[in-house]
């Protein structure tokens, strides 16, 4: 496997050299960022007097840092502790500097970042390109260089720059300019942008080549909420717009379908498995927004599923696609390593969007999924720990998918001595996929 990964990286490097993949040149986020982000679960709760355990405060972030390290999340790759909105004072100081809320962050942000770093993790913060953040705190406009320098001085590793109270047309220069200011500080900071989503809402066509060049990740669509309907709307958006969205992803530059809400109130166990599987197929950042103090073990196990995390973090960084959708059954597929000759390996997710109560059977040959390697594929189920062994392209696989649930398989291409090292064909065998779609 080590050698295979190396080969895959060689492909990435070669493609970069050919100019096929380009992105923000800060060397960061070569795989989608993983961590914990406060917003979806903890929102703008500033009431530390009445709700000290759940308010946006130094204490909340230190607690989550400890849990990330002590309860196995860091060991499987979760790395960033990210503050979202509502952290600063309502006013800058007399010199125009951002100040963390004095009561809720009494030791300041440098102290919090130092604590996160002392545990081997990285620290993220939130700001907004406009006059105000979405919750009405000071935005960076007019203070780009100063705020970038402030973040550098605090030891920030990741900046999410939102786009409320800004003109979408200004973002084409504003986002690159703030990114330039971050780079000028000399500190490497992951740059998360909301640039395209605000432009799409304003009816504009985002300039994705510029967005890829200036951001490590970006939002395309609505904020996630604590419901299956919200997760479904995001899955549909990414499937329905995949021809525009998918080509923009790659090492260093990722589409961000928003946070993982697994372990909260709105998703069933099946739906939680589906969110995690589809986020991995989408090469999405894995930013958990959940109370890690109270999460139930079965949800924790989903978030710590190493095999699915490995799909998400695949070094090729090719985002997957929806290759089949009919009568509530969807098949999503993502090319991954190892590659043998012209044949990629794949992660394949079967999703049941039906609500008729009984599990649905889906039967399909590997060939119909576009998996044509004559040497076959080693196939395993990533949730159930079932190893199907090496299967030929003609083999029909049959899976049972629970309502609003998922089955996710990994099919690793097997080697054959006849193959060359570099793939020569598209990772998606579209003709085969088309045949599948027509037949059903
Ligand atoms: C916007 C963003 C969210 C969150 C809030 C904070 O809605 O999209 O992710 O950061 O602002 O106010």
UniProtKB/TrEMBL annotation:
Enzyme Commission numbers on file: 3.2.1.-
Domain called Alpha galactosidase A C-terminal: residue spans: 317-405
Keywords: Disulfide bond, Glycoprotein, Glycosidase, Hydrolase, Lipid metabolism, Lysosome, Signal
Keyword Signal: yes
GO BP terms, alphabetized: glycolipid catabolic process; glycoside catabolic process; oligosaccharide metabolic process
InterPro entries, sorted: Aldolase_TIM, GH, Glyco_hydro_27, Glyco_hydro_27/36_CS, Glyco_hydro_b, Melibiase/NAGA_C
GO cellular component: lysosome; membrane
Annotated transmembrane regions: none
Signal peptide coordinates: 1-23
Protein's cellular compartments: Lysosome
Binding partners and assembly: Homodimer.
Protein family according to the UniProt entry: Belongs to the glycosyl hydrolase 27 family.
Listed name of the protein: Alpha-galactosidase
Encoding gene per record: LOC112054114
